[in-house]
Design a protein that fits this description.
Elements lengths: L8 E5 L1 H12 L4 E5 L9 H18 L8 E3 L12 E3 H17 L7 E6 L8 H9 L5 E6 L12 H17 L3
Parallel strand pairs: 1-2, 2-5, 5-6
Antiparallel strand pairs: 3-4
């Protein structure tokens, strides 16, 4: 992007926010935006049960037998027209690995960062945003905790406030020489 742009911002929502943090830990950017980044989840299956089941299933697969669980139910999703109703166990296991990678590398983020988190997000614990905020080495950092009861804050009521804060962050850092 630096070959075609003077300023480069990277951002993401939920898992995308984790990927943005991993990128920013490795490469210079002009700003990082992490929205509801899934560092800590309310569903303990992701951190404890899923990796164990995934490992068990992989061992069983070597014996050419069927594993004990291949899918994680997501039928109660906030956005049934957009989200999958079931997640492959392997993909949820990968999410846990991404979360762990961010834990290890977020300290290397030094560029300006905007962290936005819903205070009552049913998927991502609000503590995630605080961990990111206190761990990054950015001197220019902002944590915005918004009153939200859904994870999908970019498509939900009040999304204009989220987009306005992102817009203002980018405008501020476009004007900043660096």
């Amino acid at each position: 992007m630096r070959q075609v742009c003077n300023k480069v911002f990277i951002g993401g929502f939920s898992t995308g926010g984790l990927l943005a943090l991993i990128h920013a830990a490795q490469y210079k950017v002009d700003g990082v935006i992490a929205v509801n980044s899934a560092l800590r989840l309310h569903d303990l299956r992701v951190s404890y049960v899923v990796p164990t089941l995934h490992f068990f299933n992989e061992m069983i697969a070597h014996l050419h037998a069927k594993g004990i669980l291949e899918w994680v139910d997501n039928s109660q999703t906030e956005q049934p027209d957009v989200n999958y109703h079931k997640h492959p166990l392997a993909s949820v296991s990968q999410l846990e690995k991404v979360m762990s990678k961010v834990e290890d590398t977020v300290k290397d983020v030094k560029d300006p960062i905007l962290i936005i988190q819903g205070d009552n997000d049913p998927t991502v614990k609000a503590k995630s945003a605080q961990i990111i905020y206190t761990t990054v080495k950015s001197k220019d950092k902002k944590l915005l905790l918004l009153p939200r009861k859904k994870h999908s804050m970019l498509a939900d009521e009040g999304h204009d406030e989220v987009f306005e804060n992102i817009y203002q962050f980018i405008v501020k850092h476009i004007k900043t020489e660096g």
